[in-house]
Specification:
The chain is of the alpha+beta class and about 425 residues long. Helix content is about 50%, strand content about 20%. The protein folds into three domains: about 1-155, Beta-Lactamase; about 185-255, Helix Hairpins; about 265-420, 2-Layer Sandwich (Heat Shock Protein 90). It is rod-shaped. The structure holds adenosine-5'-diphosphate (ADP) and magnesium ion (MG). Adenosine-5'-diphosphate (ADP) binds near residues 317, 346, 363, 365 and 377.
């Protein structure tokens, strides 16, 4: 159903928007959190480094670290301390996570990956206590294991909250979209019912007009000559209107219940009959109406509707092709699909109109008289019938070259047909 599709589309776009909001939000939270965690770590390392720096001093032109500091169980198990002299030579190491790397100066904390573990390091200058001159550097490092663990936990929490939020909003979305679409669906149904009722009600008065005019025309000797023409115009207009109301009724009904087609139809015979029906018209217009129709092609459907579908296509082809042109109908069975195409060498359809031709009442040339060709419902009906039969109709066209309408329908095997 049309509205099921709209509902799904609505739900999906709602979920897509909601998902992107959640993901952006979660990414922001994670970024801020990770930043503040590393900032905290840097602060801690700096404090530790400053403490350690006060325990170093200058003796005989060399940096010396006081031994009691080394003894203190100051250093956490995933930290490391390393002292350097002014030339960057390592003087002393302490702790589990000392970097085996030469000193490289940097104001910012350094992040290094060694094997599986990531390590963050801070480098601080050491100033001598007496003359306040630079006597060396200290590098404090710590593995980022704890930070990473916290972040992994955070990822899990964020991920599962997103999934839970999506499931919940999916449920509420189903309810909300149903509520949103329901009034539209109802008014659509009412409109369709109205169209069906109105066209149905128009039948009787139209019949009355037609039959009365026909009766009057039976005895032309009783009227003035000019009146005969008027009555003929009345009959012809009433005929066109009957056709129009029938088209509208077919469209309105076709969408509501889609009378499940169930009889098996011999498409080869149906098409051959149609072609012989249109041969005189083609001949009169000097159009070469050719065909190439495979034998014994069957499908499940409604003969009347299918005849209508192909009649509309052939009528159009004949109508929009100039004399001297060709109209070719081909039908064949490819695997389990019946493909029928109606190709003409007519006026063609502009690319921007390709989508529009299947719209109701749409006609390329608005200025054409209403009764020339039809009312603009022909292709809408054709498409409707094809869809009712679970098939599709596609169009290829080039202005000035011609058009090709292709109908694809699911076929049934002949044996199925014989059994049924
Ligand atoms: N074979 C064709 N070649 C060129 N134009 C076509 C062809 N079939 C349809 N069209 C265009 O599509 C419009 C809609 O077709 P249709 O629904 O059958 O309405 P109608 O034939 O009553 O105008 C036509 O008015 C015409 O402009
Ligand atoms: Mg038509």
């Amino acid at each position: 159903m049309m509205f099921t599709k709209i509902r799904w589309r609505l739900l999906l776009s709602y979920l897509a928007v909601f998902t992107s909001i959640l993901v952006i939000f979660a990414a922001g939270v994670r970024l801020l959190f990770a930043r503040s965690l590393t900032q905290q770590l840097t602060d801690r390392l700096t404090t530790l480094g400053q403490g350690a720096a006060t325990n170093a001093d200058f003796e005989n032109g060399r940096i010396k670290v006081e031994s009691d500091f080394i003894a203190r169980p100051f250093i956490h198990k995933n930290q490391g301390l390393q002292w350097f002299d002014v030339n960057g030579n390592s003087v002393l190491k302490q702790g589990n996570f000392v970097l085996n790397l030469p000193l490289s100066m940097s104001q910012d904390p350094i992040k290094i990956e060694i094997g599986k573990s990531r390590i963050q390091a801070v480098i601080l200058p050491i100033m001598g206590s007496e003359q306040r001159q630079l006597i060396g550097y200290i590098r404090v490092s710590q593995s980022l294991e704890e930070v990473d663990e916290t972040l992994t936990k955070l990822d899990w929490i964020l991920g599962s909250s997103i999934i839970i939020a999506l499931i919940l909003s999916g449920f509420s979305g189903v309810i909300l979209t149903r509520q949103a679409v329901q009034p539209i669906e109802e008014s659509f149904q009412r409109l369709k019912q109205f169209t069906a009722d109105a066209s149905h009600e128009l039948r009787n008065p139209l019949m009355a007009i037609k039959s009365n005019a026909a009766v009057a025309l039976k005895y032309p000797e009783n009227m003035r000559e000019s009146d005969v023409e008027k009555f003929q115009a009345i009959v012809s207009a009433a005929n066109q209107m009957t056709r129009l109301t029938e088209d509208l009724l077919l469209l309105a009904r076709g969408e509501t219940n889609g009378d499940r087609p169930e009889a098996s139809v011999n498409l080869s015979a149906t098409l051959s009959n149609l072609l012989s029906l249109y041969q005189p018209e083609a001949h009169a217009k000097k159009i070469d109406l050719k065909s190439e129709i495979g034998e014994d092609m069957y499908l499940l459907g409604n003969v009347g509707q299918l005849t209508r579908l192909f009649a509309n296509l052939i009528e159009n082809a004949l109508h929009y092709t100039l004399s001297g042109g060709t109209v070719e109908v081909t039908a064949n069975l490819v695997r389990c699909y019946l493909t029928v195409s109606v190709r003409d060498t007519g006026t063609g359809i502009a690319p921007e109109h390709l989508k529009l031709v299947f719209e109701r009442f749409w006609r390329a040339d608005e200025s054409r008289s209403y009764w020339e060709g039809g009312s603009g419902l022909g292709l809408a009906i054709a498409k409707n019938i094809a869809q009712n039969h679970g098939g599709s109709i596609t169009l290829n066209s080039q202005v000035g070259v011609g058009s090709c309408f292709t109908v694809r329908l699911l076929s049934v095997k002949v044996s199925d047909n014989l059994q049924g």
